[in-house]
Design brief:
heterodimer, A: mainly alpha, 2 domains, 12 helices, B: mainly alpha, 0% strand
Chain lengths: 234, 104
């Protein structure tokens, strides 16, 4: 843990600020575990399976994608695995940035890997010094983990009480959830173009392909990022 | 493949991807092109998920029903900077109300 020592002591004000930030991100994210739990049981998972996803997969976008596709039946399982895995690639990229910052070894590194998600990364990289970053990462990651799992359980229990998910619009809630996950990524025209192509490819392929496969095929739209963005052009 | 097998496999891959990023030397993925494409993957996948979940019905054919209206309401909520849970709740409420009224 020498990396921790040589960055010095962060001032208490910065520590308080980052903890407050981490807790509020954690609470906000934990809250939508309810929608995940309810959607998971609406998709045909039992409560244990919904909880296993939150405990073991622990990356919201992939979890929503997995249950959204597997709702079509077990024949869609390969597509569900492929889509959730492709969505999980970004966590690996976050890990590349985080691993130097965290300087964790052994079991702590394994724990850090499991907590490597959008929210913990966002809080960690937003800090000015390494010590505060590490604090932000761990507090955010652990808060989200605890609340996400508790609220998944609550959502699954609520979902079991509801009966036909369509009556309460739970299928539409899934659509709204994917829209909300996509929204912050539409930061520029290139991103919008990729989203439009991905959506059109999926719609066009849907009538002729098994459920889930069009989503996986639409991943090819990301190849539009092959050329450099306009602002970087000479 | 049972649901449990699929679930555990998908969860295992998700964890392996996270751990790989903590273990592989960063320079292996440093090519800007690789980063741009992997960064664009979630955009393409999430857009495709919105499209198929909101705008396709039985047999994968294009349909416009309560779910499409729910997405429109979600977009308005996002433009107004509503938090995630509010966006999801509004989407569900929109579809539930339209169906209860027999409009979609």
């Amino acid at each position: 843990m020498t990396a921790a020592a040589d960055s010095g002591t962060a001032d208490p004000g910065a520590r308080r600020t980052v903890v407050r930030q981490a807790l509020s991100v954690g609470v906000a994210t934990g809250a939508y575990g309810i929608s995940f739990g309810a959607l998971a049981v609406a998709a045909g998972l039992d409560t244990w399976q919904a909880m296993a996803l939150s405990l073991l997969m622990f990356t919201g976008g992939s979890q929503f994608a997995f249950v959204g596709i597997i709702a079509n039946g077990l024949h869609a399982a390969p597509a569900a695995i492929a889509a959730s895995s492709m969505l999980g690639i970004r966590n690996g990229l976050y890990a590349l940035e985080l691993t130097h910052l965290l300087g964790a070894r052994g079991p702590r590194r394994v724990a850090a890997a499991h907590l490597t998600i959008d929210e913990s990364t966002a809080v960690a990289v937003a800090q000015d010094d390494a010590r505060t970053s590490r604090l932000g990462f761990w507090v955010t990651g652990l808060t989200v983990f605890v609340l996400w799992n508790l609220t998944t359980l609550a959502g699954a229990l609520i979902g079991n009480l509801i009966g036909d998910p369509r009556t309460y619009g739970l299928d539409a809630a899934a659509c709204a959830a994917f829209t909300a996950l996509l929204w912050p990524r539409l930061r520029n025209r290139d991103a919008v173009a990729i989203a439009v192509v991905g959506a059109v490819v999926a719609i066009v392929l849907s009538p002729t392909m098994p459920p889930g496969i069009p989503v996986v095929a639409a991943a090819a739209a990301s190849l539009l990022a092959w050329r450099r963005p306009r602002r970087e052009a000479p | 493949m049972s649901l449990w097998t699929s679930l555990l496999l998908a969860a295992g891959i998700a964890f392996a991807l996270k751990l790989a990023g903590h273990l592989v030397p960063a320079h292996l993925l440093d090519a800007p092109r690789v980063r741009r494409i992997t960064g664009a993957l979630p955009i393409a996948l999430l857009a495709a998920l919105v499209a198929t979940q909101a705008f396709t019905g039985a047999g994968g054919v294009l349909v416009l029903d309560a779910r499409a209206v729910a997405v429109a309401v979600a977009v308005v909520a996002l433009l107004l900077r509503a938090p995630f849970i509010v966006v999801v709740a509004l989407g569900a409420a929109t579809a539930a109300v339209l169906r209860a009224l027999g409009w979609a």
